[in-house]
Amino acid sequence: MTGMHWTLKPRIWHFLQSSARMYSTEISVGADKTLLSKLRKQTGFTFSNCKKALTKFNNDYDQAKKWLVEEAQKEGWARATKLQTRPMSQGLVAIVADNKQATMIEVNCETDFVARNDKFTSLVTKLAQECSAYFEALQEKEVSLGKAELDQIKSSEATTLADLVVLNVANLGENMSLRRGVFIKADDGTVLSTYVHPNTIKSQSSQKVLLGKYGAIVEMRQAKTVDKPALSLSDLGSHLCQHIVGMNPRTIGEYIPREKKEEPIEERPLGDEDEATSDTEGSSKVVEVEDDRLLNQEFLLDTSMTVGELVSLNEVEILQFRRFACGEELEDEKQ
Length: 335
Fold this sequence. Notes:
This protein is α+β, with helices and mostly antiparallel strands. The protein folds into two domains: about 35-85, Helicase, Ruva Protein, domain 3 (Orthogonal Bundle), CATH 1.10.8; about 90-255 and about 290-325, Elongation factor Ts, dimerisation domain (Tetrahydropterin Synthase, Chain A). Helices cover about 45% and strands about 20% of the residues. The chain contains twelve helices and eight strands. Strands 3-4-2-1-6 form a five-stranded antiparallel sheet. The protein has a three-stranded antiparallel sheet with strand order 5-7-8. The longest helix is centred in the N-terminal third of the chain and has 26 residues, at about 1-25.
């Protein structure tokens, strides 16, 4: 009897150990290293959170990814609510364009450090691509949207653009906002040119997305009678966009040839001092307004001529332009 007891004991102990191991395996499986690396790379979430997700769902990649996104959105919305009053003067302007259509957006954050972060540039690139696809599907000549409308746009992943932003709020810990976006589609016989400054921030996307602190789009039409323009339309458009970024015109204005500007003023009898003062003030207001008119500004890259003279020389008509400066004060936000 005693011998049988000692014979059975090791067997019982082995059975209990095996059962414990099986029970432990059923409860939790360690995170697969390959899946862990893939999940970390694709989502950008921390190593520990990715490991937690894979462990929680026994290495079911899709379930782990879905859970991570849902949790990050919850955290992001909560953090975004706390941070919503913090100012956002930094960020990036992004442009997605070809000769026939162009999308430009502004995405803000709090610091330049985050604005240069790879996660933030990836977010801005993604938002620009999503906005471009949305605007193109509208089949409109022009579209201009503010934050409220942009936030509600559905992304290709079936979430809203606001959801994409808050995921990065959770990741980077700063207030962020998709502030505004514009879209222009060229007509038959017109072309679009774009430019960002500084063009040193690289997008990781295979689709060409320009990133910078300033951006400009200009739509032009060239006369069909031009044989040999001084500049190619591509170069001219690029130069005009650089000028628009640098000189910040408000309107296109009307081109006035230099000889007409320099025509002598007819002599008139001197009136009282009040009339003279009034004329002087009126003159200074005209000059100030003209300085805001694109065609009357001295050309940034060659101050010996005006923009009007440049486009006249190339027989080009500027139809419209848009300019974004990251963090600039907007009229509709002053209310």
